[in-house]
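Hi everyone, sorry if this is the wrong subforum. Our group has a chain we'd like a structural model of before ordering constructs, and none of us has done structure prediction before. Sequence below.
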Amino acid sequence: MSVEPKKPREACCSKLKLFLASMAFAYFAKAFGGAYMKSSITQIERRFGIPSSLIGVIDGSFEMGNLLVIAFVSYFGAKLHRPRLIGIGCVVMAAGCYLIALPHFFQGAYKYETSMSHTSAINNSESTLPCHGNLTNADETPDLDAITACEKAAGSSMWIYVFLGNMLRGIGETPVMPLGVSYLDDFSREENTAFYLACIHTVGILGPMFGFMLGSFLAKIYVDVGFVDLDSITINHKDSRWVGAWWLGFIVTGTLILLSSIPFWFLPKSLPKQGQEESQSKGTELATVAEQENFLPEDNQDHEKEKPVTFQELAKDFIPSLKRLFKNSIYSMMILTYLVVVNGFIGMITFKPKFLEQIYGQSASKAIFLIGILNLPAVALGIITGGFVLKRFKLGAIGAARVAVAASVGSFCLLFVQAFIHCDNTEVAGLTVSYQGVPEVSYNPQTLLSQCNMGCSCSLKHWDPVCGHSGMTYASPCLAGCQTSTGTGKEMMFHNCTCIGEMMTPATNMSAVLGQCPRKNDCDHIFKIYMALSVLGSFISACGGTPGYIVLLRSIQQDLKSLALGMQILIVRTLGGIPPPIYFGALIDRTCLKWGTKQCGGRGACRIYDAHAFRMTFMGLITGLYFVANILWGGVYVKVVQRQKKLALRNQAKENGLEGNSQGNGHANINIATNKDDTDKESTI
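Answer:
Right subforum, don't worry. Here is the predicted structure as tokens:
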């Protein structure tokens, strides 16, 4: 007889573990796709010639997709077949990835801006005259009809497909988190929930690692690989005009997400509670876990036994459920805290590759690779460490809140220090320094002109940088005053550049080569210090992730769990996911020193920023948001402690009442009722 009860328990555990493995794979796949999207932001910005503010709108379309369906999926999905809804979501996500890649096949070949021809058709030793290569008045405003025809041919509005595809990804991702986490929490042991969540998030964090590594690899491959002669391309992956094979990654991520949907079609609607022998009569709504019974107010724990309900009854109960949910002050305070934290995090992760590129002179490919290989493993280790600490020391809601607050304060301190570690501006004549080499930041295009290039009729719109032998970068060979050139393609060199001789310490060699000059040697050392602090900060911040989530789970009623998690995602992603890329991007655009020029003559993506203004804007915003988050975390901790004290008083009153009841007199019964009423009022927040 002792053998029979073990069989269903083994089946239960195996199905729960299958769901756990399926969720981990789905988290990996969706995080893989999301991270690849973040790593491709710079490539998409350059390919479509759009500013950072618009790329912020495209990035925020993922959250817009969530906004459309999250409330309904979270509330009604909890009553339906949760695993199958997750499977449907994965299929929709995959379709979104394929839609994002579609514009590449409709657009023509990418044509980067250049001030002169670098083709190998002419092989003369002195083939072109850079100083006199712009006499066609390139800065004149072209005809409006010509611009319209050009834009239609170039497919300049194709970014809309990326916008819609990313929105579709957001719609598909909606069921995964609220339904998956609530399903797992419903059917696992209380002491295992934190560890299971940590395992899922840790496996999920491997997704961004591989996503950023794929983004780094494809950023080095030219966008039109296989369609153009790569020997004719005069720029390399370090150039701000370079566009990698961004579209290829979305085909890979879409296929992986599609595969992750398969296991969910074979999982049951509900499972027995882990560790229980008889569970057929329990249904999907199980008894509240022990800690939650002790932590939540008693009057909020009474719910009716599960019975068949109609769609109309579910809809009628929606608004009252929302009111019950937001009367919970701890839940409301935590939503506000997450809102501020996510604002800072989304803004940081969206533009951090560009930050590393502009402040520390790293290529887009290397910046993406370093984030994926250093920061993300630190985050994974931090998440699993936070979950392990909770399980090892068996911390309750107060203990979890303490860990979360400590992690938040520690990461803020390291972030504050990072704001003061930076390299100097790259030296570009007429933009960050004068032609004589004096530091002098200018947002006025006219400062690109000087006595040394005044007679060359140079265009001020083009960005075709050359590096002088003196170590200074010039916006184009013409603006460097170069008289002759030799070689073809990437090997082209420019000679007799009159502006190089205007330096306060004139160079003996008056030649220049294609591309920007490298940063000073001490910048590499400064960058290593910054990355070390960044990695440590990522680890400490992630240590508070799982404890914070446990505080959220333990502060909400069992029947509202799916709705609470869904509303958290809805609010945080609506106000914490959509606005940050837009306002971060708009403020970063204000620090642009030189805008690129589109194929049809309009303003394209920014080519170079004022590094100091960029750093103060970017790091100032993030540090300010995290400072506010620390204050809010302190408020959450105070609320949790207050609630725990009230519940302790209530439990003590109950014990006193039970002792009096055992004496068997009516007077004691009256005291019990009075004590219960008083404590219920005290525990309601």
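For your construct planning: The CA atoms of residues 303 and 559 lie 8 Å apart. The chain has a mean pLDDT of 80.
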